Amino acid sequence: MAVNTLLEDINKFRQERKLPVLTENEDAACLAEQIAEQFKGQSCNNATGEDIVPGNEPQFSNYPQLLDSCHLNISNTKDGVILPDCVPDSNPAIAYNNYMVVTSQYFQYVNDTKFVSAGVALEDSWFVLVLATNTTSGSFQTYNGGTAGETGSW
Predict the structure, then answer these.
(1) What is the CA radius of gyration of the chain?
(2) What is the distance, to the nearest Å, from the Cα of residue 82 to the centroid of all Cα atoms in its chain?
(3) CA distances from 88 to 35, 42, 82, 126, 142 (A)
(4) What predicted TM-score, i.e. pTM, was given to this entire model?
C-alpha cells in the first residue's frame, strides 16, 4: 500500500540522519483520512499540495467536525502539522520526494525531532501526512476514552 511505503521511506530517511523513527499514530491517521477525504476529486495544480504557498493552505470550515469524527480535541492537535501533497497517479516515490527534498516546504517538519509519530492517508491523488509530538498539545490522543474513527455521541 502506498501510504505504508511513504511512512517506511520517511523513516528510512530519518534513520539515515540519526533521527528517531516516526511511530504509527492511529489517531493522527484518522485525521489524515478525514482531511484526504476533503480533497477527494480535487485536481492537482500548482496551488495544491506541496506547491501550496505557506499561509495559503486550505481551510476547512468543518474542521471541528473532522476532529470530532476522530474523537480529537483541538487542544491535542495544535502542535502537530498536517501536510497534504497531491501526486498524480498516487506515486509514493514522488510523494516521498515532495516531502524529503531540501527545497520542499515540508522538509523542515519531516526532519524535526519534536515529531515522534505520524498518520498517513491517501485519497485519489492526495497523500496527507499528519505529524504528532509527544506533548499534550500535539499528541493527537483521543478524548473521553474514545477510539479514533469510532462513531457515537459524547
Answers:
(1) 15
(2) 4
(3) 18, 11, 19, 8, 33
(4) 0.83
Q: Check if the beta carbon of residue 32 is closer than 8 Å to that of residue 120.
A: yes
Range of weakest confidence among 1-5, 49-53, 140-144: 49-53
User: How many CB atoms lie under 10 A from the CB of residue 110?
Assistant: 21
- Contact between 5 and 11 under an 8 Å Cβ cutoff? The reply is no
Can you give the length of the chain in residues?
154
Instruction: Say how far apart CA 49 and CA 30 lie, in whole Å.
Output: 19
Helices (H), 17-153: 26-39, 63-69, 92-100, 107-110
Phi, psi of 117 (to 5 degrees): -145, 165
- 40: Cβ contacts below 8 Å, ≥ 6 apart: 123, 124, 126
